[in-house]
Design brief:
mainly alpha, Membrane protein, transmembrane, YczE/YyaS-like
Length: about 200
């Protein structure tokens, strides 16, 4: 159980840090993060608060997709991610600015990798998934799409909404939209093997 909880918390820790790095790179955030930033600028509240609000909306949408009931335990995951994002954005990296293009690229790529590792890690634990990732799982379950395709569909949907809300869209957004699914798919196998070996000890 300790390993399970550790994987869960570290995964969410990486996810929050990764999202913050992609936002701070200022080259275009991931579609969902761009949507949350756009909503924050348009209506107030912190980015993390919008992570929580959008997560709750997605929780009900996922239930509709799989013809089931909302997984209210996912609220724990939603809150932890929202608080994590706000912690990194408004406390740890509040005054961090990447002015050189090289540093922006490093921040963006590091963020993409950390998000992918974080998602792959915490999904191993079978704790309630972040509704954004649950959307990927719901599409996988309902339409038997692999993670890569399902995640990309979710990213493109969020991209359209982010454009409407005038979120920070750029080359980074495009890279994240089309790379995040394949990288999660690629990371999932070795992380799953590592998790299983630790659990069996």
């Amino acid at each position: 159980m300790k390993i399970r909880i550790l994987f869960y918390l570290i995964g969410l820790f990486f996810l929050g840090l990764g999202a913050t790095l992609t936002i701070k790179a200022n080259l275009g955030a991931g579609a969902w993060d761009a949507l949350n930033v756009g909503l924050s600028h348009a209506f107030g509240l912190t980015v993390g608060s919008w992570v929580i609000i959008i997560g709750i909306i997605m929780m009900f949408l996922n239930a509709i997709i799989v013809n089931g009931k909302p997984n209210f335990l996912a609220l724990v995951t939603i809150l932890l991610i929202g608080f994590s994002v706000d912690f990194w954005l408004t406390v740890v990296m509040k005054n961090v600015v990447f002015e050189q293009f090289f540093h922006q690229v490093i921040s963006l790529l590091s963020g993409i990798v950390l998000i992918s590792i974080g998602v792959a890690m915490y999904l191993q634990t079978k704790f309630p998934a972040n509704p954004i990732d649950q959307f990927m799982l719901a599409l996988n379950k309902r339409f038997r799409l692999n993670f890569m395709v399902a995640k990309t569909i979710g990213e493109i949907s969020a991209l359209i909404l982010a454009l409407i809300m005038q979120g920070p869209i750029g080359i980074g957004t495009i890279l994240i939209t089309f790379l995040i699914g394949p990288i999660i798919q690629w990371m999932n196998t070795p992380i799953a093997k590592g998790y299983e070996s630790l659990i069996k000890r």
